[in-house]
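Example record used in the benchmark description.
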Amino acid sequence: MPELLLELFSEEIPARMQAKAADDLRRLVTDKLVAEGLVYEGAKAFATPRRLALTVHGIPARQPDLKTERRGPKVGAPDAAVQGFLKATGLKSLDEAKIQRDPKGDFYIGLIEKPGRDAIDVLAEILPVIIRTFPWPKSMRWGARSAKPGSLSWVRPLHAITATFGLETEEPDVVKFEVDGIEAGQTTYGHRFLAPSAISVRRFEDYEAKLLDAKVVLDPDRRKDAILTDAKQLAFAQGFELVEDQTLLDEVSGLVEWPVVLMGSFEPEFLKTPDEVIRATIRNNQKCFVVRDPKTGKLASKFILVANIEATDGGKIIIGGNERVIRARLSDAKFFYETDLRTKLEDRLPKFEQIVFHEKLGTQAERIKRIERLAAEIAPLVGADVAKATRAAHLAKADLLTEVVGEFPEVQGLMGKYYALAQGEDASVAAACEEHYKPQGPADSVPTDPVSIAAALADKLDTLVGFWAIDEKPTGSKDPYALRRAALGVIRLIAENALRLSLLKVAASALAGLSVKPADAEKLPSDLLAFFADRLKVQLREQGARHDLVDAVFALGGQDDLLMIVRRVDALGKLLDTDDGKNLLAGTKRASNILSIEEKKDKRTFDGAPDAALYSLAEEKALAKAIGEVKTEASAAVAKEDFAAAMSAMAKLRPPVDAFFDKVRVNDDDAKVRENRLKLLNEIRSATRAVADFSKIQD
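Model output (structure tokens):
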């Protein structure tokens, strides 16, 4: 079957846009093909700084013929309706129509046959539309064409379009179309400097090979692999170790078509600046990688750059140019760092009185005071020293006003730690200056030092309660203040550090510290707690917990104690992985179903203890005895927070429940016996609710 080759050759496409643009091109073209009845076998898109390319193989050479029936007017309808029907269906007369009988009468049916078109003609129609309407986040117009109404808007000036279609065994045809004066053909161009001549291409295999000969590596993943491999080898050859950076690697691979890895150096005196500042300076300004000494783990005075050209001098001029820029930038960073060290963190805090955190929540200085107070209250609950937690909260935001953080915002918190240590603060206080922001995402680490935990919880809970108080809650996909992330951070801090913490009490305390008071202040803590419950459900599901088990535990309430919910869900999952658990679930749900039917029929519930005197069968007595024992054992285990033991106790109900349903007829003819047995079924339901609401669990 034929394949399509499409390339859009332009000036440099910003690296950050390339991956999405390639995916958009693949999606737009293949969606259109399928909509036109051309179901393909496979497609892959590529991007380099100067081109977007797409290959789609297994496209049918021709659309299938379409036959559709169109229902017309009733037999005997007015002539105007008949003529409209004939025109719409293309029939010459009613003799060409069929008559279909219907309860409402006889109707004319017209058969419309639409012959399929050649796929190349369909492509010539859909490709220019896709190019003209391509969803670039930013685009531009250029040259003489920019004055023309409807002229092409593209991310950068578009120079050429390659579009061929045909079988592998034959010479492909050019898909003939033009966009804003640019005619599609089969000519592309190699590397801008190393092989700029025109190249005639036929199909994808030929295209990719010729580009490689012309110093263009088409596949972004291949460019990344080459950069990473060469950088590691170059560092190793010099006795160093590459500091890997996936984000930087993605960006750099989008800046070059023919990657050439080189190593430069800078003066060792700059290594007195913290490693993270050096790395941020070199990374942000020159898009270069840093290396470290594998023996000490400290950065070395070397860097690795990726050029887009094979220089005749071995890269000496390129390296020299990068060294000059990096030397100047590192000099600035060293100056900023040394300047920051001259001012203590706490001496910076008065400036926060002039900086508004949020117009309804006051200044940064007011917020810091709230966090201090909250951290002092949380500290005893998490085993932290109150004075240290308060001090950490007092200093945690101060580095936001430093020169280094102003230049490199990504090192906020980290620089607070360095400056705190430099001025002689306690190690836990210094660590909390960095860690109070954590965790900032699912891959981020969770603080384990009690002082850091107290500061982190205080910071996040103040944010959540504050924005809840001014009714700035997340809605749909909108979450401008990252409140979902803050809530997940609180959940991870509690769960991964096994903390017993009443969120209701802490939220109420945080609310008391706010100057703004919402009209429904008494409802705010419980409303916020429901938000935590939703976030916890998401967290547990992402960790692999079944959503129905999460719902079964949440149905019991007690969302105030997140740690206990996590433990219950875990224990319930393990129980239901056993045969006893599965059979107990089946028996419990059977009891619940029978109860629901009979309660609806009788319009009453069957609460209350069964009458032992009405037990006539051994299975009734055995079940009643087992329920009593299990209730006692499970309740004691739950009281000790030993949920595994509680679940194990529940599993003991399985044999008597099975025997009961096997031998006992619940709806006995004797009304009193029937009522008593239904109460016994209710006891099963009640007993299992000690650990979860089994009715929420799916079979």
